Amino acid sequence: MDRALCPVLVGRERELSLLEDALLAAHRGSGQVVVIAGEAGVGKTRLAMELQKRGRRAGTAVMVGTTSEADVALPYLPFVEAIGNYLAGADLDRIKLQLGPATCRQLGQLLPQFELQTTLIDPGEPSQAKMRLYEAMLAFLRLAAERTGLLLVLEDLHWADPSTREVLEYMARRLRRRSRILLLATYRNDELNRRHPLRPLIQGWQRSGIAQIIDLQPLPPSDMARMVSAIFDNAPVEPELRDFLHDRTEGNPFVLEELLKAALDRGDIFLTAGGWDRKAIHQLRLPPTVKQAILLRVERMSDEEADILRAAAVLGRSFDYRMLVGVSQRPQAAVLNALRSFVQDQLMDEETSGLYRFRHALTREAIHDDLIAPERERLHACAADWLRTQLFPDKHDLAYHLMAAGHWDEAVPVAIEAARAAEADKAYADTAALYERIVDHVPDRCERARVLSELGKAHFFAGETRRGQRYLEEGIAGLDQCGKERDAAGFRLWLGRCFWLQARPDLARAEYERARAILEPFGPSADLAIAYVRLAGLAGFNKEHEQGVTLATEAVRIAEAAGADAARIFAYGYIGDNLEAQGKVEEGLQWLDRSYLEAAERGFEWIASVALYNSIIDNLHHCRVREAKERLEHFEARFDPRGSRDPAFLQLQAFLAIRADGDPDRARPLLEAALPQAEEVGETLFAARMRLDLAYVYTALDRL
Q: Least enclosed by CB within 10 Å: which of 200, 252, 372, 496?
C-alpha cells in the first residue's frame, strides 16, 4: 500500500446528520444556507463530499464550485465553475426556453453557453445592474432545483473574490424564500483575522439567523484510532499509538494521513505475513510538521519530478496538465508519468478532462512557499508565456502570472483588459482591485490619470462613494493636464453623481455644467444627453421646474440624434417629474409611465425603477392611493427590493411602507439597517432622508 487515505468518513456523524436535515428541508421547499467552518485539514471538504454523494444517490442535482487562491481571479469563479459544469450535461435549449431571453441575456455576461448578443447601456445606478445579474443567477439555480432540489457547494470562501462575496450575500437572503436549494459553503476559520473581508459577512449571517454555522472541531483520540484502523484494513490500534498520533496531529485528519504516509515511506509502518505492524513508539521518526512531511516526499523525488511538481504549484490548486507540460518545459510523457506518481504519493487527485488538483491546499502551499523568489518568478513568467500561445487566454490568469513574475510593463495593459471584462460582468469591486494593483506601475502620466479615473468610477459603482470621489478628482485633474478634457468629461458625470449622493448638489451641478460645456462642441452624444438629464434633475430638486422641462426636452433631442435610447428614455422621466410639479399632473404621469414602459421593454431596469418609483410618489402626493398601490404592486413584482442590501432601495421600501401602507412597524427595521450603510459609504443624501423618515417612524411608534 502506497497511500494512507481513510476510505470512510469518521467522527462526523452529528455534523452529517445536520447536513442531511438541511438537505431534506430544502427538498421540501425551505431553502437553506449552511457554512462549514474549521482549520485547514480538519475535514471540511471531506464532509461536503459525503453529503454530495448522498445527495446524488437521492437524485438531488449537485453543483460544486471552488474559489482561487490567486490574487487576481475570474470574478464569480465558483459560480461560473459550478454552473458551467452543470450545463455540460444539461438540456441547454430547454433551460433557455424556460428562463426566457432577458434572463439568458444577463447570464450571457458570465457564461458563453448563453450567447450574449448585445450589451445594453443603462446610464443609471450600477448597483441595480449588479442585482439584475444576481437575480438571473438565482433564477437559474431555482430552475435547476425545481424538480429534484439542488445542493450548491462553494469551497474555500476565505479566498472568495469581492464579487463572489456580494452575490453570496444577495442569494443567501433570498433563496431561503420558496426555494429547494441548499447552499453549502466552507471556509478556514483560522484564516479569518479581524480585518478579513469575509468576517462581517459570516457574522451578519449568524446574527440574522440566515445561515447555520457548523464549526468543525479536531477529532478526539478515539476517532483518530478509528481512522488509523480504517486505513490499515481494520487493524487494531493500541492506546499507546492512538495517543501518540493524537498528540502529534492535534486531531487533524489531513495531518494524520500525511504523517502515516511518511511512516509508510520510511518503513516505520509495514505489512507482514500476519498483517500490519510498526516499530516501537520511540523508533517512529515522524516529521514534526505536515509541511516537512510533504517536503521530505519532494526531496525523495528525482530532479525531473520535483521540478514538475514545483511548476504545478505555481499554476494553482487545480490545473490542466497541458499547461503544466508547457510551463515545466518537460516532455509530455515525463509530465504524465510524474502526475501518476504524484497521485500515488497522495499529493494530487486526477479530475476529468486532463485536469489535476492538489489533494489539499496545504500540499500546494508547502511546495509553493518553499520556492525561492527568482524561481517562483521564472515559473510565473513561463505560465504567462504559455497562456499567450492560447487562442483565447483568460485575461485574469494572464495578468496574475505577469504580475507575479514582476513583468509590470506587460501586466498593466493585460490587467486593464481584465478590469474592463470584470466591469462588464458587474464585478465592480474586482474591477477596482485590479486597477489598484496596477496604478502605481503605470509609467505614462496620462495613462495613469485614466487608470485613476477608472478606479474612481469602479469604487463608485461598487458603492464606495467617498473613495470613488477621491480617485475621480485626482484622475480628472490629470486628464485635464494632459489636454484630454473630452475624456475627462465622461468621468465628470460620475463625479457629479458622487457629490449628489453626498448631498452636495452645488458641486454636482458644477461637474455637470463643466461636462456639458466640454461635450457641446463635439455634437450629440450619449454623454451629452446624460449631462442634460442630470441638470434637469437638479433643476427639479431646486424647484426650477420650467427649466427642468426645457433641459430634459433638450436631452431627448440630443439622445435621438445620437441614437442613445437609454438616455432618451431616462429623460422622459424628468420631463414627467417637472411637469407634475408644475401642476400638469396627468401629462406628467403619462411621461413617467412612458419612461417606465419603454425602459422595461428594453431592459433598462434602473431607469424603469426610477420612473415607476417617482410615479408612485407623485400619485401619493395627489392622494391617488389606488393608482399608487397599483404601481407599487408592479414595482415589488418586478424589482423586489426586499432582498437588496442597497441602502437606497431599503430606504425606498421603507418610504413606500410609510406612505402607501401606513405601516411604520415594517419601515423601522428597513431604515435602521439602511442608515448605517448609507453613512458608511458616504451617501449622505439618502442618509438625511432616512433620518427624517426614521424620526417619523419613531414618533408614530412612540419610540422617541
A: 372
